[in-house]
C-alpha cells in the first residue's frame, strides 16, 4: 500500500531531524497529541518489533557515537523518565523517591523549570536505555494498577541529555549539550463521548485541564509571534511548566497530530487539527548550547557564594505593595518561602557542580552500582520464567501487559498486600486486595491450584471463585475491581 506509513518512514520524516539537531547541540522536542486510541503511543514508543520514535532515536544516537569512537570527543548520554498523572509528577526510574502529592516542580534562574529529586541515569549503550525504559514502563504499570489508571490517562516524558565534550583550538574544555524531550501526551477526549464517571471523570478533568492549558499556551505563543503582547500561562499546569522550553524557548520542536479515521470522532479530529494549525505558527528561538566547562563551574561557584551570603545575612528584598493588604504573618510566610527557594537553588547548583567535576567513568560506575543487583535479579527471573509456572499482568493497554511477573514456585505462595505479616510471596497492591487474599499451591510443577481466602473476591476466567481450583495454561485470574490484574 503506497499510502501506508510504517514506523521507519515516521522516524525518517520526524525522528531523524530531531537526531540531527541533537548532534549540532540544539535542544529538541517531539510530542504527540490526539485523542485516546488514535496511535500516539504506537508512534512514540511502538509495540513489539515495530519500534517507535523513542527507541529508534536512542538506537541511532548510539550508532552515531560508535561510528565516531576514536575521535577526541567524549560522548555522554543521560536518561530521565517522568510521568504526569492528575497534575502530579512521578519519577519512573526511581519510584522510591515518589511522595504523596508528587515530586515538586521548581524554577531555576538559568535552567528554567525542573523536577526536584528526579533521577538522571548515565547510560553507555542502547541496551542500557532499553533496560531503563523497560523498568520505567514496569514501574508505570505497577503504579497504574495501584491507582486504577491506564497509560492513556497520563503524560509520559522521556528526556535524553546528550553531551559532547572536547577541547577547542585554545585548549579550553568545551561542552556541547542537547536535551531531547520525547513526550507522549495523555488522550484528549470529551467526557460525554467516553461516558466517564467518578474517578475516570476526575482523571479526565485533570487531563483536559493540562491539555487545555497547553492549548492556551500555544494560542498565546501563536498570537505573540504575530506581534501581539500576550501573557503566556505556563504556570497554569505542571505539563506546560516542564514543556516551557520546548514550546516557546530554546528548542527545535516537532508535533505529531494523531487522528482517528472513525466518523464518530469527527469533533475530536477537528479539535486536534485546529490545535496543530495553531502550533504551526509558533516560532521558537533555538541556539547551540556550547560553552566552556571551566567557565560554567566558575559561574556556579560565584552564584553559590552570592546565594549563601544572602541566606546568611537575610539581605534579600521582598517586594509587597501596601495596597495588597498582606498581614505580617503572610509577609513572614512569603519571606520563609523565598528563603527555601534560595536554599533549593543553592543545593541544585552544588549538585550540578559536583556532577561536572566528576569524570564520566565515575558517574557511569555509580549508576551501574545502583542497578547491578536489580538487573541481575531481573535476568534471573527471566530465566526462571522458562521453567516455573508464573502469573503475568494483563492490561487493557498492550504496552503495559506482561510487564509484571510473579513466579509460583514449588510449595505454597501466599497472595496479599503489604499489610500482611509475614510478607506474602506474591505482593499485590490496589483496591480490594486483602492482607491475605489467596494461596497458590505448586506441586512439583505438575499441578497448580488457587484458593481464595475468606472474604476475598476473585474471578477465574470471568466466573466467581469460591473454593480451591486447579489452574491451566492461559487461565485468567482477576482481582476486581483493580485494573490490569494478573
Q: What value does the Rg take, in angstroms?
A: 25 Å
What's the multimeric state?
Answer: single chain
Mean pLDDT: 80
Helix-strand makeup class = alpha+beta
Number of DSSP helical runs? 12
The helical percent reads 25-40%
The backbone outline, from C-alpha atoms, is globular
Enumerate the spans where pLDDT stays under 50 for 5 or more consecutive residues. Answer: 191-197, 482-486
Q: Quick one: how many beta strands?
A: 22
What does this molecule look like?
There is one protein chain. The protein is an alpha+beta fold. It is 40% helix and 22% strand. It has twelve helices and 22 strands. It has helices spanning 7-24, 40-44, 53-67, 126-146, 191-194, 198-224, 238-242, 244-248, 266-280, 293-313, 328-357, 360-385; strands at 28-34, 46-47, 50-51, 74-85, 88-91, 105-108, 112-115, 121-123, 155-167, 173-184, 252-258, 290-292, 390-392, 405-407, 411-416, 426-427, 438-443, 447-452, 459-460, 463-464, 469-470, 477-478. The strands form six sheets. Strands 1, 4, 5, 8, 9, 10, 11 and 12 form an eight-stranded mixed sheet that branches. Strands 16-15-17-18-21 form a five-stranded mixed sheet, with no helix packed on it. The chain has a three-stranded antiparallel sheet with strand order 20-19-22, with no helix packed on it. The two termini are 39 Å apart.
Amino acid at each position: 500500500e503506497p499510502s501506508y506509513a510504517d514506523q521507519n518512514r515516521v522516524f525518517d520524516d520526524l525522528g531523524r531531524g530531531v537526531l540531527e539537531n541533537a548532534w549540532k547541540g540544539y535542544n529538541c522536542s517531539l510530542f504527540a497529541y490526539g485523542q485516546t486510541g488514535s496511535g500516539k503511543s504506537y508512534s512514540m514508543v511502538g509495540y513489539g518489533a515495530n519500534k517507535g520514535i523513542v527507541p529508534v532515536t536512542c538506537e541511532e544516537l548510539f550508532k552515531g557515537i560508535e561510528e565516531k569512537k576514536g575521535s577526541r570527543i567524549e560522548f555522554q548520554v543521560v536518561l530521565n523518565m517522568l510521568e504526569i498523572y492528575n497534575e502530579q509528577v512521578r519519577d519512573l526510574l526511581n519510584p522510591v523517591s515518589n511522595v504523596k502529592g508528587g515530586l515538586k516542580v521548581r524554577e531555576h534562574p538559568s535552567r528554567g523549570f525542573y523536577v526536584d529529586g528526579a533521577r538522571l541515569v548515565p547510560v553507555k549503550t542502547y541496551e542500557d536505555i532499553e533496560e531503563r525504559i523497560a523498568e520505567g514502563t514496569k514501574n508505570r504499570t505497577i503504579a497504574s494498577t495501584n491507582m486504577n489508571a491506564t497509560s492513556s490517562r497520563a503524560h509520559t516524558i522521556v528526556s535524553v541529555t546528550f553531551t559532547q565534550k572536547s577541547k577547542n583550538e585554545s585548549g579550553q574544555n568545551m561542552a556541547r549539550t542537547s536535551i531531547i524531550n520525547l513526550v507522549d501526551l495523555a488522550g484528549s477526549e470529551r467526557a460525554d463521548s467516553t461516558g466517564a464517571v467518578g474517578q475516570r471523570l476526575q482523571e479526565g478533568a485533570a487531563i483536559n485541564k493540562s491539555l487545555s492549558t497547553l492549548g492556551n499556551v500555544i494560542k498565546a505563543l501563536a498570537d505573540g509571534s504575530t506581534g501581539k503582547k500576550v501573557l503566556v500561562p505556563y504556570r497554569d499546569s505542571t505539563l506546560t511548566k516542564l514543556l516551557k522550553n520546548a514550546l516557546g524557548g530554546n528548542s527545535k520542536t516537532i508535533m505529531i497530530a494523531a487522528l482517528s479515521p472513525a466518523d464518530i470522532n469527527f469533533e475530536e479530529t477537528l479539535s486536534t487539527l485546529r490545535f496543530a494549525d495553531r502550533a504551526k505558527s509558533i516560532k521558537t528561538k533555538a541556539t547551540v548550547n556550547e560553552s566552556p566547562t571551566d567557565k560554567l563551574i566558575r559561574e556556579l561557584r560565584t552564584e553559590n557564594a552570592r546565594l549563601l551570603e544572602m541566606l546568611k545575612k537575610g539581605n534579600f528584598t521582598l517586594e509587597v505593595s501596601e495596597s495588597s493588604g498582606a498581614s505580617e504573618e503572610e509577609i513572614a510566610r512569603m519571606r520563609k518561602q523565598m528563603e527555601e527557594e534560595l536554599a533549593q537553588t543553592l543545593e541544585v547548583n552544588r549538585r550540578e557542580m559536583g556532577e561536572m567535576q566528576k569524570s564520566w567513568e565515575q558517574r557511569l560506575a555509580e549508576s551501574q552500582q545502583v542497578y547491578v543487583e536489580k538487573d541481575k535479579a531481573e535476568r534471573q527471573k527471566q530465566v526462571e520464567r522458562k521453567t516455573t509456572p508464573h502469573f503475568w499482568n494483563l492490561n487493557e493497554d498492550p504496552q503495559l501487559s506482561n510487564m509484571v511477573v510473579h513466579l509460583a514456585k514449588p510449595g505454597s505462595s501466599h497472595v496479599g498486600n503489604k499489610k500482611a505479616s509475614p510478607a506474602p510471596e506474591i505482593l499485590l497492591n490496589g483496591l480490594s486486595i486483602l492482607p491475605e487474599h489467596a494461596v497458590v499451591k505448586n506441586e512439583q510443577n505438575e499441578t497448580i491450584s488457587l484458593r481464595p481466602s475468606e472474604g476475598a473476591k476473585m474471578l477465574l476466567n470471568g466466573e466467581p471463585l469460591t473454593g480451591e481450583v486447579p489452574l491451566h495454561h492461559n487461565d485468567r485470574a482477576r482481582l476486581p475491581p483493580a485494573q490490569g490484574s494478573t
